[in-house]
Give the backbone structure.
Amino acid sequence: MILTGAQIVEEVKRGAITISRFDEAFVEPNSYGFHLGRTLCVYDDAEVDAYGDRSVHQIAIPETGYVLEPDHFYLGYTEECMGGDNYSAELYARYSTSACGIFIQTSAPLGHTGAIINWTLEIVVAQEVRVYPGMLIGKICFWKNLGTIEPYSGRYRMSRSVVPSRLTSGAQ
């Protein structure tokens, strides 16, 4: 069952959902609008080895913005630390964002119960698009769990900024 915006507000107030720097102005009917963090991460090599070493560099997004280019893959992160011990979450782009040709979380939108983090965002663009630090870029919704809750304990727990892949050949 998805939470309504009003229920998200109630759960934040009682501490069951964490949204750092919470502002009711960003509450939507079934979600909360989140903002782009100040740093992007880009893989250095044209070919990324899923099991090998992956060299990356970070790009600080200036206040004047940074132009994302098509045929590139960017990792960003949410300015807000978000999640809940009793709710799973899903991240989506806002329509206004995707209407500019910015696509986020196209392959991994699910946030597990207990992951209270600054979420890494998968970003690709259809055309050159200028993005800004702190811009409203996506929305998170929260789902009530059915069954026994097993809190997230994966390798991305405690994320506070952009995190490149931590996939290894032994990873599940």
Helices lie at 5-13, 95-98. The radius of gyration is 16 Å. Residues 28 and 80 are 16 Å apart (CA to CA). Residues 5-144 form a domain with the Deoxyuridine 5'-Triphosphate Nucleotidohydrolase; Chain A fold (CATH 2.70.40.10).
